[in-house]
TrEMBL record:
<dbReference type="InterPro" id="IPR052892">
    <property type="entry name" value="NA-targeting_endonuclease"/>
</dbReference>
<dbReference type="InterPro" id="IPR029471">
    <property type="entry name" value="HNH_5"/>
</dbReference>
<feature type="domain" description="HNH nuclease">
    <location>
        <begin position="12"/>
        <end position="66"/>
    </location>
</feature>
<dbReference type="InterPro" id="IPR003615">
    <property type="entry name" value="HNH_nuc"/>
</dbReference>
<keyword id="KW-0378">Hydrolase</keyword>
<protein>
    <submittedName>
        <fullName>HNH endonuclease</fullName>
    </submittedName>
</protein>
<dbReference type="GO" id="GO:0004519">
    <property type="term" value="F:endonuclease activity"/>
</dbReference>
<dbReference type="Pfam" id="PF14279">
    <property type="entry name" value="HNH_5"/>
</dbReference>
<keyword id="KW-0540">Nuclease</keyword>
<keyword id="KW-0255">Endonuclease</keyword>
């Protein structure tokens, strides 16, 4: 038998994410229904070393997920705000904070750490309040 993974599979993770965050796209705020389908999106992209953990995943509609491309989460958040979309800043703050805590607990993720720290600083500079992080 292979190694036991601490993470549920992808489909199960998506359901857990929807339970955790609600059934709307983090970026454009549209509720998931009909043609607006939820996809799993990595906050810290995999190419930047982001892990496939619940703490690094949010639900986004396929349009936003595709359009964000390789932009960082805060860069894309700013673009969504320019478009006047009701982007969920608090949700992004919670996920970034939870990911920092998970990395501190589990260790590793050397590539993701500096990227994540920079994103947290950039979000704080925008005046966001993050749970457990001094402003
Ligand atoms: Zn969307």
């Amino acid at each position: 038998m292979g190694e036991v993974s601490a993470q549920p599979d992808r489909a199960a993770r998506l359901l857990l994410i929807l339970e955790r965050d609600g059934s709307t796209c983090i970026w454009c705020g549209r509720p998931f229904a009909g043609q607006v389908r939820p996809t799993t999106e990595h906050v810290v992209p995999r190419v930047k070393g982001g892990p496939s953990w619940l703490e690094n995943e949010v639900a986004a509609c396929g349009r936003c997920n595709g359009e964000r491309g390789h932009r960082s989460p805060v860069e894309w958040l700013e673009e969504c705000q320019r478009r006047g979309w009701p982007v969920d800043v608090d949700r992004l703050g919670r996920v970034l904070t939870a990911l920092s805590a998970a990395i501190a607990r589990l260790g590793g993720q050397r590539r993701a750490r500096p990227y994540l720290d920079a994103q947290v600083r950039r979000l704080l500079r925008r005046g966001a309040t993050l749970p457990g992080v001094p402003a």
